[in-house]
Amino acid sequence: MTATETDRALVDRVAKGDRAAVRLLFMRHHARVYRFVARQTGSEMMADDIANEVFLELWRQAPGFEGRSEVSTWLLGIARFKALSSLRKKKEDWIDDEAAAAVPDSADTPEVVTMKEDKAAALRRFVDALPEEHRTVIDLAYYHGQSVGEIGEVLGIPVATVKTRMFYARKKLGEALKAAGYDRGWP
């Protein structure tokens, strides 16, 4: 019986509630998990806590283990996820109120938000007023994120035709925005 088969058999036993199997897997894999997490986090204390959490997670997730990977790989995957989560949380905890207050607020003012909403609504009305061949190209490009080549495939037209329609549609939209008193920038 190989070590891999033994590990999988132990996970099967853990899934059935066998605490001794968890202890055996802990003895077999704890050092590797600990070293991995210590390298990921740079903290021995954090590594010790996370390594212990990995084996608690083993206890919880053992019934769902499908054996698509080695048990050691599965445990390291759990460890990696927990290490990244802890590092993220540590970074979030690190910012104090004074530092947070010093972070500049780049959010738009209520006036700018209203101006953007008005312009977006006007732009949507202008797009809706375009001839269908231009409206479709603009809709696919800007509202559905399609590339020129993809638009050509969807519509069954050459790329050059897509580009021509896009050019005229943009020109008409620019003229409509200017006539309505909107400048071309945002908001």
Describe the structure.
One of its GO terms (biological process) is DNA-templated transcription initiation. Belongs to the sigma-70 factor family. ECF subfamily. InterPro entries: RNA_pol_sigma-70-like, RNA_pol_sigma-70_dom, RNA_pol_sigma70_r2, RNA_pol_sigma70_r4_t2, RNA_pol_sigma_r2, RNA_pol_sigma_r3/r4-like, WH-like_DNA-bd_sf. This protein has helices spanning about 5-15, 20-40, 45-60, 70-95, 95-100, 110-130, 130-145, 150-155, 160-180. The N and C termini lie far apart (about 70 Å). It folds into 2 domains: about 1-105, Rna Polymerase Sigma Factor, Chain: A, CATH 1.10.1740; about 105-180, Orthogonal Bundle (Arc Repressor Mutant, subunit A). It is an all-alpha fold and about 190 residues long. About 80% of the residues lie in helices and about 0% in strands. Helix 2 (about 20-40) packs antiparallel against helix 3 (about 45-60) and helix 7 (about 130-145) crosses helix 9 (about 160-180).
What are the SSEs and their pairings?
Layout: H1 3-15, H2 19-41, H3 44-61, H4 71-94, H5 97-102, H6 110-129, H7 132-143, H8 148-155, H9 159-179
Helix pairs in contact: 1-2, 2-3, 2-4, 3-4, 6-9, 7-9, 8-9
- Which percent range fits the helix content? over 70%
Rg over CA atoms: 29 Å
Sum up the overall morphology in one term.
elongated
Label the CATH architecture of the largest domain.
Orthogonal Bundle
> Poorly predicted ranges (pLDDT <50, ≥5 residues)?
none
- Number of E-state strands: 0
Classified by CATH, the class of the largest domain is Mainly Alpha
CATH fold title of the largest domain: Rna Polymerase Sigma Factor, Chain: A
Tell me the series of helices and strands, N- to C-terminal: HHHHHHHHH
How would you name the CATH homologous superfamily of the largest domain? RNA polymerase sigma factor, region 2, helix turn helix motif
- Taken together, the total number of domains comes to 2
Estimated structural class = mainly alpha
Organism: Mesorhizobium kowhaii
Domain RNA polymerase sigma-70 region: 25-91
Protein name: RNA polymerase subunit sigma
InterPro entries: RNA_pol_sigma-70-like, RNA_pol_sigma-70_dom, RNA_pol_sigma70_r2, RNA_pol_sigma70_r4_t2, RNA_pol_sigma_r2, RNA_pol_sigma_r3/r4-like, WH-like_DNA-bd_sf
